[in-house]
Design a protein that fits this description.
Layout lengths: L10 H6 L11 H4 L39 H5 L5 H9 L12 H27 L5 H16 L3 H5 L4 H19 L70 H6 L21
Helix pairs in contact: 4-5, 5-6, 5-8, 6-8
This protein binds iron/sulfur cluster (SF4) (2 copies).
One iron/sulfur cluster binds next to helix 4.
Length: about 280
């Protein structure tokens, strides 16, 4: 996330979107459907605990995830939905002590995840736009989001987010267009950049939203205001690369890419522990 408007009024909110696994009960390791092909230890149904989830909700093989190449586990990030669900809907216990409500709690976690993901993008959108008319729209969407997260258990377990998602997507599209309008003329077309070598290219303000960029090579590229919204960056080479001013990046995208100690990252993201020193 960039920081164009210094001291954004949403700085505290952004902090809440960072994962805090100590305040959670391993919700992601239970609630989600996982597959071996996505880099998890085994195929498992949603609602079934992973066999490596310990009784204290820690991962029994956490220190060995990289050696075992469990990339799905290493990359996953819930935008703080795990601890938020726990704080709001499980204040005195865990999903284990609420066995009658278990299924509902897992659905709530997934709803909160979706809302927090949109909140992450909206908070960044707020810092990026120079359109004074768009600012109140973003503020309203953020406030609506907060209200939806705190609905009754029945509502948040089965929310209809389609209309809200459309409104968020419209804002993000508007901002993406505003930023890429000033991109240099050597446009790069398409959405499939699987394994592409960008060869130190100037990719400033390019719009790569929703692009497939698995194993693409960005080393030495200029990436100011390059838009990575929803792009698949698994195994992308970002070693020795400056992404500090790239936009709409998430922690999960960084976790799944290959960086090193010389990779510069946006101010609100954390350096993955698995990157080369
Ligand atoms: S759901 Fe989020 S906070 Fe909970 S264990 Fe998973 S990543 Fe951590
Ligand atoms: S291996 Fe560990 S991190 Fe991965 S799903 Fe299982 S308990 Fe969670």
């Amino acid at each position: 996330m960039t920081n164009d408007k210094a001291d954004s009024k949403y700085d505290d909110l952004i902090k809440k979107l960072k994962i805090d696994c100590k305040k959670c009960s391993g919700l992601c390791c239970v609630a989600l459907y996982c597959t071996k092909t996505d880099g998890f230890p085994a195929n498992k149904e949603a609602g079934t605990p992973c066999k490596y989830l310990d009784t204290d909700f820690r991962c029994k093989i956490h220190s060995g995830l990289a050696d075992k190449n469990y990339k799905g586990c290493l990359a996953y990030d819930c935008f703080g939905a795990g601890q938020r669900t726990t704080q709001l809907y499980l204040p005195d216990g865990t999903w284990k002590t609420n066995s009658e409500q278990e299924d509902k709690l897992f659905k709530i976690f997934i709803s909160v995840y979706q809302l927090h993901q949109m909140l992450w993008y909206l908070a960044e959108a707020f810092t990026l736009t120079s359109d004074e008319l768009l600012i109140p729209t973003i503020e309203l969407l953020i406030s609506e989001n907060e209200q939806m997260v705190q609905q009754s258990m029945d509502h948040i377990a089965m929310p209809d987010l389609s209309e809200y998602r459309l409104k968020v997507n419209k804002v993000l599209k508007q901002i993406s267009t505003e930023i890429s309008a000033n991109a240099s003329s050597n446009q790069i077309h398409g959405i499939n950049y699987l394994g592409k070598n960008f060869k130190k290219a100037n990719l400033d303000r390019k719009n790569f939203s929703m692009s497939l960029m698995i194993a693409a090579d960005f080393s030495g590229c200029s990436l100011r205001k390059t838009n990575f919204l929803g792009a698949d960056l698994r195994d992308a080479n970002i070693k020795n690369t400056d992404l500090s001013k790239s936009i709409f990046l998430t922690q999960m995208q960084l976790n799944s890419a290959i960086g090193n100690s010389n990779t510069k990252i946006p101010i609100n993201l954390s350096r993955p522990a698995t990157w080369e020193k």
